[in-house]
Amino acid sequence: MGALIVLFVVMVLQARTEAVAVDLPPLSVPAPAEVEPVAPAPEPPPQQDYTEQMEELKQLREKRLKQLEDARLQLAGLEDHSRRLTDKIRKLRADIAVLEGETDNVTGSADDFETQKKRLDAEIAQAQAELEQVRKEIEGRKPAYALVPYDGQSGTRRQPIYIECTADRVIIQPEGIGLSGNDFQEPLGPGNPLAASLRTIREYRQSQGVPGQGNPYPLLVVRPGGAESYAAAREALNGWDDEFGYELVDEDTKLAYPPADRFLAKQLIETVELARRRKIALIMAAPKKYGRLEDQHLAATRNGGFQPV
Fold it and tell me: Is 60 exceeded by the pLDDT of residue 156?
């Protein structure tokens, strides 16, 4: 009996061992997905150091201020000289008047009187000639002011297109292309003479390929009495896609515009004439809308600006 129990235990242990030793099918483990390498982030562009340029601009500004102060001192000296000459002429004329009024009491001869009068007349003529010369020097020494374009933080220098607004016309400077009131009468679409001229200037400057310069922008220089001209120019530039600027300038302030470009001036003349011909064609094609061609005229008003005539 005991032998049977031992045999039974051995058989059970053998059965368990065989059960454990059963071959299991291999597990299918999916292969890891391939991960694309992440491109490294681009390095930020190096910060440009504008310290040297700022120092140059600062020195240039100080130099210009010194020149302006010297010019003002010289101008003040000339103006003082002019006042003294004017006083001298006034005194000499008074002396002649006194001399002529006292001819009855003069003890000397008539020749002495004429001699004194001629001497005083000569001094007056000399003083007047000197005064005229001083006035010319004063006029020539009046400081001229330059409208300096603004340099943005990006270092891009945008050159302005100078549009001077006066009491009776709009002038594209420095080429001196004048636009009258007729050029701002309806129809005033994107092909009007002023807008077309600005496009010509932009294309011309871009063709020059000057590095570091962005698109030019209109800068309206408004003289006293030029408010209506300014309004007309703004309306003509209604479709202009860039920002614009303006400066209010006194009537007597002389502006130092850049030198005129004769090649650009020729292109502007052709552009304005072509725009005017297109406008005439539009008026003739739609007289009911724009009126008769002979009615499309504007004249300067007494207070400045334009009005139909």
Answer: no
Residue 305 clears pLDDT 90, i.e. is over it:
no
| Bond from prior residue into 187 cis (ω within 30 degrees of 0) | yes
Cα separation of 234 and 188, whole Å? 11
For residue 300, the SS3 value is: strand
- Check whether 169 has a pLDDT greater than 80: yes
* Under 8 Å between Cβ of 232 and 163: no
- What is the DSSP annotation of 202-235? HHHHHHHT-TTB---EEEEEEPTT-HHHHHHHHH
Strands (DSSP E) contained in 109-183 are: 144-145, 160-165, 170-173, 177-179
Q: Nearest 5°: phi and psi at 303?
A: -95, 10
pLDDT band per the 50, 70, 90 thresholds, residue 191: confident
3-state class (DSSP) for residue 248: strand
Residue 5 CA neighbour count, 13 Å, CB half:
2
Task: Give the contacts of 127 (CB within 8 A, at least 6 positions apart).
Answer: 85, 88, 89, 92
Mean pLDDT of the chain: 72
Q: Which position has the token pair 């001399």?
A: 99
